[in-house]
User: What shape does this take?
Amino acid sequence: MDNKHSGPETPGTVVLTFLLLLWIGFLYFGNWITLSQAWGIR
Amino acid sequence: MAIYPPERIWWKPLGREERLWVTVAALWCFFMFFMLIGWYFLGAQNLPTRAQRITTAQYKSLADQFVEANKVGEENGVPIVHPQPGTDIYLVAKQWQWTPILELENNKTYTLHVSSLDVQHGLSIQPINLNLQIFPGYDYMITITPNKAGNYSLWCNEFCSIGHHLMTGKIVVK
Amino acid sequence: MAAIALPNTFSGTRSVFRVCPVTTFKVDLAAERLIIVNAVTAIVALLLGGIYALLIGLTRWPDVHLLSAPWFYRLLTAHGMNMLVFWMVFFEVAGLYFGGNALLNARLVGVKLAWVAYALMLGGAILVNVIIMMGRADVMFSAYPPLKADPLFYVGYILFAVGAILACCIFLATLVMAKVEGRYEGSMPLAVFGLLTAAIIALFTLLSGAVALIPTLLWSLGIGNVDPGAYRVTFWGFGHSAQQVNLSAMIAIWYTLATLTVGAKPVNEKLSRFAFFLYILFINLGSMHHLLTDPGLGTAAKFFNTSYAMYLAVLGSLIHAFSIPAAIETAMRKKGYNKGLFGWLLNAPWKEPGFSALMFSLFIFGFIGGPTGVVLGAGQLSLLAHNTWRITGHFHATVVGGTTLAFMGFAYYVLPLVFRRPLFAKKIAQWQPWVYGIGLIILSISMTLAGTLGAPRRHWDVTFSNVTIPVQVQPLMNLMLTFSGIGAVIAATGGAMFIIVAVGSLLFSPKRDPKALSPLEA
Assistant: This one.
């Protein structure tokens, strides 16, 4: 086995994990936008 | 085979896709960390940082004085107060009522003191959905600047014994 | 049954093993008995907690509103204790003995002590349940002072923790002895490494619990005082970190199930072990997530801890989120399912309960529980979410949809391989992860959305009837509460299906040679 590659390619997993990252980003930024909108708590 | 010992030499370099993913994931993690710090300096709302120890008796007497000086009415036995803008205002958490009802002026900044006279409570301001944990023995000082007129509901979101669901209150912004 | 006896180093005694004909592992019979009693006790706790879950779910469904307020709060306390503590920890102790003994062909060190640990845990669990049902501890799982429970409640909590500490120490001693006696070659298997991670985190967790609860016990007896803020710091060192133990155990079980169901091999052992190592170093900092909106703690402390020192524990989770599906994809492609991007996924053994449980667990944890946790734990964002039902939605997607479902999938292998009984009602087992998983997806998403609209957690009456100062509730919240009720009923059905399969297999399936029983060949 090629020493640089610990296994065969996994294109499906690459797509799934990048979808996951997009989803986390969506939730994350959505909440920050909500937080910027009220009462200026400090 | 995760349930058998690995081959003798398992300390192998990462594959191309793994390297890519670990790099992207690590960058995202560092970004999230610096977001917290950046927001602390630039963000519109932040976690309140001011608090001091106080006995429940001391806090009660401060809040009583505040109500006496600023009382303008009553609703179902709960006093309504209208304090001067820019001053220190006091909210009391107790089983099972937020008191008094605060009448605030729009776009004015106040220092809101909150503390409990008995057990822990959760201050939940609705519908803007801002939530803070309230202790007895700690005077929590929160800077607020209401920016929209209307009625705001308060309820308790920390279990405070059997009448927890009865605990409500109100802030009116005029 | 082929039994063999091997001499023990130091003590001169012998341990008796049987050889598993499916896996060829040598299983210490003393360890096997302990695996069985701990697992059965866990399932009893799950049954109790599940019944309470259904009643609580039907109470928070506004149109049903089943229980009275005192019983709602009482059963909510009992639900939390039985699910978050007793079901999880008893099952994890069974898992530790399974990993430390069966997977390493090792003997259990300190068999008598292991029974003492079990007795302490069982005694503590019974005491806590009895005191709660007597109405003397309506304080919730978190038991924040100055809300006071009967001293015996804290005694039960502490006894259980001491038993669990003992069990972790026995596991660690077993690992050392397995190495000393040369029961396995080279490095320990990845699954055992994951369990070791869990045990190390568990020791910190349980000691934190002792630091929180022992002064609280004294205070409940009238000795000294407990600061509410300090209690929360130490309690969540137990309460939240316990969920990190569950997380590590769950991931160890994910790797195990991926191996058992599709023959997956970790893509890169180094990377997976590194990810577990990140957990050991950083994940317990996350217990400060609960304290973000507390008075009295500095911002720097909040940011350092809740970001797990720059989100390094999140990095660990993101690594597992890649390496587990990658291992499955690699194994499936090797079997020839090479069509397109997702041919390997579509052709996977979805009818096999161990596999569907693994995939639902991965999905619910990966796409709901984990991401909501990252958001809720992000410093300032806690202002939007603290103590709302978003928190409850988050941890039902992690500890229930994630961990519990993974444990259930694992049980479908433990029943035939350790208990040596064929699965009772296989059809029910086949659909169980689907019903449970879908119920939990509905439950956790609707809880999260209700919380986004302000619904508080641990609350009997979100319609706020009979209050002194009337409040306005967003109309959509009621709809979300109704959905959550429906989700709870579906999930409880799935839970009942698991209990039927587990208890049915124990009571009605004849004990047989496990060779014929592997779910893979069923």
The first helix of chain A runs from residue 11 to 35. Chain A touches chain B through 23 residues (CB under 8 Å). The CA atoms of residues 1 and 7 of chain A lie 8 Å apart.
